Q: What sequence folds into this?
């Protein structure tokens, strides 16, 4: 155990050089990805936290049933604007991701491998790919849209179509890229498999998080490899200068600072307070910012990022976003606005082809809870905001 | 059936098929650009496109059969599928035959759409823009009505409609992704004016 703990973590890679990679992590021993994922109870790191072994078995079963070799897509699309972990991982340890990709491909008997990442990350990955002398890995450039990394949207895009979510039946694991059984796995999940194969038994008990905070007026964003089950107050600095913490990302949940400080970073503990780890975004909203204004901006972004395919999402999210913008301006809304938002949230949840409406509404619902005092203040024409600069990033399409 | 009735039926179906095929092309552009027709849900335009084209195909069958059994012109059964095999005006009839062959391909691939690669279906479907001009030239050269009068006027209107539809269809398809930002902007302005928010159709 001691020996395995001495192995470096996923963030300790040294870039695209293969010799550096081998010096840091050692060669990849032969291993069965399914066995590793089962024993470590590894969960997917793309956001949903689905058990990797279950997914692997489903693709394996579909491949046997259809007698077609499956496709494996390593997903680094990272549409979440507040998340940076997949990009950082690809820049620091691309070979670990490739190791995991090859492990999974071996276990599934896949003959087509795709690495899907935004074009700006390709420069970091191309030399790594060249060094491996594997010509069966295709590099796919993903667009900078929120839904680009959604499983079915990604499979459609890899197939040359629009990067938009498709119907959930048949599922991607049965009919994905080229109509073949397809495994879409987050790059961090793959890197963790590569560490598990090397005997680092606790690789599955860690997770990458993107921390966003403000220190002395300057935004501080970093990616850290933290133990699952750690107290959030130990991972992120949550002092008096913090109003609330956003956990999981833009489909995530706001928690009051007092609650956030003591919550443990694992799926069960987070579920107890109504939160999910999502893609690992942890953002400490500094005092002097208005949580309503932040949420309204994010919600406008999310509404504009709707695929526009399902009525409840296309009609509902812009309304909720518009109403939140009114709510975010002190003294500009009437009493029915809150009621309307709550009603609209109920109307869109669970009614999309993908989970975009559900996740967006979760963020809004938590904001209405956590920023209750703010709402009362705004109704009376007051706002705590002293700083007009936005805290959370929301790329320009919303404006 | 008297020979004169056969000839009349042949001319009439030819003209109606021209109109229906034009309508099919227009509806094809409507489907491609995801336009919502008044009184129809969006999926309705797809069904309309399909049904109008199938009615056109049925009338075309009548057009072909009457042309063959009309004893005044020598067009054999072979000329139905093999271009330029007709005894009467082989070039003019052959253009129609080519159009029929393309139409059969398009119908068969459309019926098998869920079982063949989508790209194959799409590629074959694009040949509609070759089919229509072939059929039009066939009408101009083989037909006896399209030289003048209201039939010529109708034909020109049809040609204009197809040209416009082709321009609309070829300049791209409506991206679903563009709808959401527009909906956000519209809602924002409606709410800030205090007016009611419109319902966004998937158009």
A:
């Amino acid at each position: 155990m001691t020996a395995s703990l001495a192995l470096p973590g996923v963030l300790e890679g040294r870039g695209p050089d293969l010799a550096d990679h081998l010096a840091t992590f050692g060669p990849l021993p032969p291993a069965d990805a399914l066995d590793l994922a089962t024993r470590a109870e590894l969960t997917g790191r793309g956001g949903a936290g689905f058990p990797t072994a279950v997914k692997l078995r489903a693709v394996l079963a579909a491949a046997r049933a259809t007698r077609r070799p499956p496709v494996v897509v390593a997903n680094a699309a990272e549409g979440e604007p507040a998340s940076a972990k997949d990009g950082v991982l690809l820049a620091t340890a691309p070979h670990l991701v490739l190791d995991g990709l090859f492990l999974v491909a071996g276990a599934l008997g896949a003959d087509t491998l795709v690495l899907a990442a935004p074009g700006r990350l390709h420069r970091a990955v191309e030399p790594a790919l060249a060094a491996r002398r594997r010509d069966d890995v295709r590099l796919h450039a993903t667009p900078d849209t929120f839904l680009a990394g959604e499983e079915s949207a990604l499979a459609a895009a890899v197939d040359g179509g629009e990067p938009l979510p498709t119907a959930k039946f048949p599922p991607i694991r049965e009919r994905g890229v080229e109509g073949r059984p397809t495994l879409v796995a987050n790059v961090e999940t793959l890197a963790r498999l590569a560490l598990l194969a090397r005997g680092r038994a606790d690789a599955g008990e860690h997770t990458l998080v993107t921390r966003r905070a403000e220190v002395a007026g300057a935004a501080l964003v970093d990616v850290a490899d933290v133990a699952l089950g750690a107290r959030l107050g130990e991972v992120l600095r949550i002092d008096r200068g913090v109003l609330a913490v956003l956990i999981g990302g833009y489909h995530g949940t706001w928690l009051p600072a007092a609650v956030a400080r003591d919550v443990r970073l694992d799926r069960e503990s987070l579920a107890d307070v109504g939160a999910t780890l999502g893609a690992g975004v942890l953002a400490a909203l500094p005092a002097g910012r208005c949580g309503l204004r932040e949420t309204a901006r994010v919600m406008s972004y999310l509404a504009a990022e709707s695929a526009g395919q399902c009525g409840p999402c296309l009609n509902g999210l812009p309304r909720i976003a518009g109403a939140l913008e009114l709510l975010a301006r002190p003294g500009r809304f009437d009493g029915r606005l809150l009621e309307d938002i709550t009603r609209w949230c109920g109307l869109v949840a669970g009614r999309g082809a993908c989970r975009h409406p559900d996740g967006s509404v979760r963020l809004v619902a938590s904001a209405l809870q956590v920023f209750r005092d703010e709402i009362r203040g705004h109704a009376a024409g007051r706002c705590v905001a002293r700083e007009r600069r936005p805290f959370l990033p929301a790329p320009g399409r919303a404006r | 059936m008297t020979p004169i009735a056969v000839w009349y039926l042949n001319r009439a179906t030819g003209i109606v098929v021209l109109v229906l095929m034009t309508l099919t092309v227009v509806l094809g552009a409507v489907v491609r650009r995801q336009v919502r027709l008044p009184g129809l849900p969006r999926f309705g335009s797809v069904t309309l496109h399909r049904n109008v084209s199938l009615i056109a195909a049925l009338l075309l069958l009548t057009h072909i059969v009457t042309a063959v059994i009309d004893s005044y012109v020598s067009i054999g059964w072979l000329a139905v599928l093999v271009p330029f095999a007709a005894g009467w005006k082989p070039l003019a009839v052959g253009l129609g035959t080519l159009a029929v062959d393309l139409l059969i391909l398009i119908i068969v691939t459309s019926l098998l759409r869920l079982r063949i690669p989508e790209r194959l279906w799409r590629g074959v479907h694009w040949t509609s823009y070759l089919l229509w001009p072939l059929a039009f030239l066939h009408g101009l050269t083989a037909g006896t009505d399209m030289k003048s009068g209201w039939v010529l006027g109708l034909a020109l209107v049809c040609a204009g409609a197809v040209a416009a539809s082709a321009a609309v269809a070829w300049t791209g398809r409506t991206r679903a992704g563009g709808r959401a930002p527009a909906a956000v902007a519209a809602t924002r302005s409606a709410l800030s004016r205090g007016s009611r928010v419109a319902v966004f159709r998937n158009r």
Notes: The interface with chain A takes residues 175-181, 183-184, 186-188, 190-192, 197, 199-200, 202 of chain B (CB under 8 Å). Chain B has eight helices and no strands. Chain B has a mean pLDDT of 88. Residues 58 and 143 of chain B are 19 Å apart (CA to CA).
